[in-house]
Amino acid sequence: MSRKKIYVDRRTVLKGAATGAAAILFAPNIVTAQSKKIRIGMLTILSGRVAQLGTSSRNAVMMEVEKINAAGGLVGREVEMVIRDSKGQPQEAARVARELVNSDGCEILYDAEASSGGFAVHEVAKDLGVLCIHTNSETSSLTADPKIRIPNAFRVCRQGIHDSIAGGAYAAEIAKAKNLRNWATCSPDYAYGRDSTQTFMEYLKHFYPEAELKTEAWPKLFQPDYTEVITKVIQARPQALYTCLWGGDLTSWIDQGNIYGMFSQNQVFAVNMADYTALTTVKNLPQGIHSGNRYIKTFPNTPQNAAWADEYRSRYGEYPTNWSWQNAVGIHFLAAAAKKANSVDGKKLEEVLRGLTIESPFGTDGTVTIRAEDQTIVNYAIGWGTTIPQEPYVPEVKAISWETIFELETEWKKRNNYL
Amino acid sequence: MTGPRSSVGCGVPALHGRRVYFSPRCNLDLAALTDCFSSASCIVTQTTSGLIIGLLLFLVAAGLTLIFGVLKVVNFTHGSFYMLGAYFAYTVNNLTSSYALAVLAAAIGVGLFALFFERFFISRVYGANVLMQLLVCYAFILILDDAVKIIWGPEFKSMGMPDIFQAPPFFVAGGIIPVFYLFLIIVTLFIAVGLWLIIAYTRFGTIVRAAAVNPSMVSALGINTGLIYAAVFAIGGMLAGLAGGLAVPVRSLTAGMGFSILIESFIVTVIGGMGSIAGALIGSILIGLVRAFGSIGFPLFVEGLMFALMAIILILKPSGLLGKEG
After folding, report:
1. Element at B223 (helix H, strand E)
2. pLDDT tens digits, residue range B244-282?
3. Is A73 left (phi over 0), alpha (psi -120 to 50) or beta?
4. What is the pLDDT, as a whole number, of residue A18?
5. What integer pLDDT is reported at residue A320 of this predicted model?
6. Percent of chain A having pLDDT more than 70?
């Protein structure tokens, strides 16, 4: 085998040196180009029984981010989403949140966790001081309790207390009209289930003092068989039943309750029914279940809301979920804040986000606001209605007045020493 | 407008020191249990409820205990077999709109998969350290969960109730018995009796029982024990698949759905005695009744009651109700 000799002459050395020098000279420009991107670290649940909601969160974010980037990014900086799966485990959420900031160079944390993981991410944000947007954690204390609230974290999703006041007011009206005095509850046995059920019953009683709880059942989260809790509830012969079961648990419960004729025997109030994940999955959806609006394209019944749902559906082949709109509105807020602050610096964004009002397809009157005092979203569409087994699923949603919610929420905060 | 004056919950102290809406008898409600035992309608409803919980559990636990009794393998993938059965039934029902075909496909499909699994993987760890068996099974739990996500997607599915069972429930002495659950009870009891007849009275059953006691002697008599093992494993898998297929109208389907039923099946096999099918039947019905009546008397301690029952039986008879000592 012959070996070809390589000659390195003076000209080659000079060319190489010139190339090296050019690389060094132009390197800062390359770095500058890269630094124009702003990295946002998003963590959500992309595996397990809640994966559908996590995926719908990611879908909504990517749909909105693409639009922002097409329009030139956040004050000229392209948005790059770094998305990680927390697997629904709080300890994993905390670990991933730290990694996103410390290793991946993310400047903003976009927390699309359920409440369990949301509190863990909140602690990381508190520790690192990075701007954090909570998009799915509905537990009221996250922003209501001043001991937990931090200046660099904002919530852009429903809040449990708002849903409970709205649900209590709506249910009381039905209860008065139909004389529903005997109530039962059947909710998942964990923090969200207990808090939601407790506050719903409080406000039902507030608006309709004659309501009386006959029995309560607490199935485990993700319990496969609800037979014993269904029969327990039926034995109590309530006139009305409240549940905050959700997702696959809710659909199983409905399938199993149906064969006992549970839904024809009493009025059922299921706060999480009116979300497309459940509405489109249950094959034998009983007529007349009362539900809070989670996400319905017909509420608010505006062309903007319908257009947003249709755009999402045409892109992903399914309707958006409650987690979808919450994650979309978070991106809308970030875009508006960056524009107003003319910066993507976390501290400047924080200042602008407090009290910021934006136009939104998800607002009661076409706008939503991040309330300055507790850094949580208000004025989003909130109401209750009854289901039918086909589209539009909840033909008429009765909106609840935000004045009533604010008034009772203030009382609630005072009672809990949050004010 | 003022808000409510108290904030209460089950076991949660009320603000202003009083409870208003939630029953203070959350953890222990013996009065409700006594009321239930004095009411024919409650006894009928809860007993039926206990039977249906127990008998579906029996189908899974019977396969688990059969495999352990003969092969001495603790098959941790059994919950995944149940999951596969549910998904097979869901798919076939969507294709054919026939629940009967769906159940049949679930049983046969999972039986064939179990046969493949035994021949290529489990047969290699017979007699190995239990940790090695556990490792193989655990790996397949993860693999099958991921396979389900890839094939059917990560979101939960619901098959819905077949038209034939969409009928009002029966009322017996005021108690409610759903038509579908009556069907499940009859089918499951039929399978339990059939299984017992096969094991007790057929040549195949005799060989299986002999292989469970002394496989070397069975082999020395010219019987292919490898084939027997494969058949037993496939039958065990079929039972789990059948349970998944039967239950699919009233379960939401999701990757990992087999895990909870696996835990309960282990409790059943421990209570009934590892390797005893009759023990599994008694254990399953006991667990079903404990859940049904426990949810009325001990609403927050139903899971605990199952484990308490298991602990008591293990203390009194460590080999389980019908398990063989030693």
Report:
1. none
2. 999 999 888 888 889 889 999 999 999 999 889 999 999
3. left
4. 57
5. 96
6. 91
Which residues of chain A have a CB within 8 Å of the CB of B296?
A: 232, 235
pLDDT at residue A376 tops 70:
yes
B286 pLDDT higher than 60: yes
Residue A194 contacts B where some CB pair is shorter than 8 Å: yes
Residue A241 near residue A247, CB atoms below 8 Å: no
Tell me which residue of A316, A387, A248, A274 sits closest to B159, measured CA to CA: A248
**Is the CB of residue B308 less than 8 Å from the CB of residue B58?**
no
Local confidence band at A14 (pLDDT 50, 70, 90 cut-offs) = low
Q: How many CA atoms lie within 13 A of B218 on its CB side?
A: 21
- How many angstroms separate the Cα of A213 from the Cα of each of A15, A182, A226, B16, B52? 87, 6, 20, 19, 28
Is the bond preceding residue B215 a cis peptide, omega within 30 degrees? no
Q: Apex CA A29: angle with CA A25 and CA A35, to 5°? A: 140
| Residue ranges of domains in chain B | 52-151+172-258
CB atoms inside a 10 Å sphere around CB B210 = 17
C-alpha span between A155 and A331 (Å, rounded) = 12
A259/B4 touch (CB, cutoff 8 Å), yes or no? no
Give how far B196 is from chain A: nearest CA, Å.
27
Asked if B49 and A231 come within 8 Å (Cβ–Cβ), the reply is yes
Residue of B nearest to A188 (CA): B300
The beta strand positions in B102-189, using DSSP E, are: 157-158, 170-172, 175-177
**Model confidence pLDDT, tens digit, residues B77-123:** 999 999 999 999 999 999 999 999 999 999 999 999 999 999 999 99
Q: Which helix (H) or strand (E) holds B50?
A: helix B40-71
- Is A189 touching B (CB cutoff 8 A)? yes
Asked if B313 contacts B46 with a C-beta cutoff of 8 angstroms, the reply is no
Interface test with B, best of A164, A225, A250 (most B CBs within 10 A): A225
Q: In A297-387, where do the E strands start and end?
A: 357-359, 367-371, 376-378, 383-386
pLDDT recorded at residue A49:
66
A49 shares contact with chain B (CB less than 8 Å): yes
For residue A289, CA distances in Å to A218, A224, A262, A389, B7 come to 20, 22, 11, 10, 26
Give which of B94, B171, B250, B289 to mutate to test A binding, by max A Cβ within 10 Å. Answer: B250
Interface test with B, best of A53, A197, A235 (most B CBs within 10 A): A235
Q: What domains can you pick out in chain A, each with its CATH number?
A: 35-159+302-378 (3.40.50.2300), 161-299+383-415 (3.40.50.2300)
Mean pLDDT of A150-177: 95
Q: How far apart are CA A190 and CA A246, in angstroms?
A: 12
List pLDDT tens digits, range A306-361.
999 999 999 999 999 999 999 999 999 999 999 999 999 999 999 999 999 999 99
pLDDT at position A385: 94
Closest in B3, B295, B296 to A206, CB measured: B3
Nearest Cα residue to B260 out of B27, B86, B108:
B86
Q: What is the mean pLDDT of chain B?
A: 88
CA distance B110 to chain A (A): 20
Query: Does the bond joining B249 to the residue before it have cis omega, within 30 degrees of 0?
Result: no
DSSP A266: S
